[in-house]
Design a protein that fits this description.
The structure is a homodimer.
Chain A: H1 11-22, H2 26-38, E1 41-42, H3 43-49, H4 54-66, E2 70-75, E3 78-83, H5 85-100
Antiparallel strand pairs in A: 1-3, 2-3
Helix pairs in contact in A: 3-4
Chain A binds a DNA duplex (30 and 30 nucleotides) through α3 and α4.
Chain lengths: ~100, ~100
DNA sequence: ATAATATATCGTATATTTACGATAAGCGAT
DNA sequence: ATCGCTTATCGTAAATATACGATATATTAT
């Protein structure tokens, strides 16, 4: 974003757009699905399941953590990730709310 | 996306990620709301309501059109845009389905 | 024909994203 | 103390995204 006229947009739209951004890569949706199935997962397990390098997967995890969709807990030498259920639900609500404003929905 | 290992991801996840990308800018969410309220709108009206230049707004419209969330119809010298209701509903369903797979939702 | 209007596209600058390998930092075991 | 393992971060390259002004194109009106 070169210039920041962006400040004039509605705040909740900015938040929703930001979460949409976090969901805008198939690897990250994949990661959410994995964490949902396994309840929790260390980085290495995610890396084994995603066809991307360790460092790239780590970046995707970081992005999901940035928007709070997942939580990471350090357990000795590893990090255990899991869904942040509260945020997942909040996100679901936010999308539901957006679509409910559309006449056709 | 420098390299294209992306081909190994689930196809519907790739589609959903792509739509999420289209929703990942507040201006574009704003445009969807505007088109919903007014049923249809020419480019110029959208430009007047969005704090961005004409060319930038045109790009955002193009991105929304790329994923089929909106339709554009040329009407003489103008272009009239409206929501693609079928796609809006499909998108709603896709998100609903995604979130319904999460245990917490 | 020409002028005015509307809008998409071009050219361009900057920022961000995505990807990777390499490195650093932390922990546990030896 | 050192080694091995795990993972985050650094450095970097390439691709995309975002923004703008300028321009091209098409249509309507004069």
């Amino acid at each position: 974003m070169p210039l920041a006229k962006t400040d004039t947009f509605d705040n909740s739209d900015k938040q929703l757009a930001d979460i949409a951004k976090a969901l805008s890569h198939p690897a990250r949706i994949n990661i959410l699905r994995i964490l949902n199935e396994r309840n929790s997962c260390i980085t290495g397990e995610v890396v084994d399941l995603i066809p991307l390098s360790q460092s790239t997967v780590s970046q995707h995890l970081k992005e999901l953590k940035r928007v709070n969709l997942i939580k990471g807990e350090i357990e000795g030498p590893r990090t255990s990730y899991c869904l942040n259920e509260a945020m997942v639900e909040k996100t679901k609500s936010a999308f539901t709310k957006l679509f409910s404003t559309f006449k056709c929905c």
